[in-house]
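Deliverable D4.2, example record:
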Amino acid sequence: MSSENIRIVMINTSHPGNIGAAARVMKNMGLKRLYLVQPKSFPNYEASAMASGASDLLSKAIVCDSFEEALDGCHLVLGTTARERKIQHEFINGREAGLLTAKESQQQQVALVFGRERTGLTNDEIGLCHKLINIPTNPDYSSLNVASAVQIISYEVMMALGIQTTHQTEDDIALASSDNMQRFYQHLEETLVDIDFLKPKQSPQLIPKLRHIYNRARLTQEELNILRGILSKSQKNN
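Output generated by the structure prediction step:
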């Protein structure tokens, strides 16, 4: 069972104990790579205490200044959320997330993203995710601790990795990485402004909607290169 291509990303975690508890359950489930985006307090004694025997994961945790930095090199980004959004992403449950992560991580980097304890992920952060994970809970008490959410998804990943074969099919192709997609979105916005199709102040939702379209499509690197070539040509001819 290999988990080297899977990273757990925690954003703006307020309570260091949650970081330690997440590291502990990650080690329980065979996951090793922890990324922390602007944690409120880290390193921290409480995190180390809650990690128990998983202090090695904390010592190797990568602290990032931005969400984009934490996604560098990733080809699949799955964000956990309990809230509905105006832009409709595809929602999957924990079991589906585990199976998809196990499959994609055989060849490519996967990020499993967990937001702030109180407010979760922002709309901009949601825009960087390919799919959203919803963990069904009791509607009368739906609040779920972030470390518990990490445990549930990590368990599903471990179970899926246990049954995942490493056989490659003819459909295995190189998907565009998250950082390359971000460069494409910047290029796309610049081009749309250049050709006078986009006026950012008048149409602030256009780029988020286009992001959703392309995230849903899961572009290959070859397809991305073609689109960027079209954008470059359009800029030259404008």
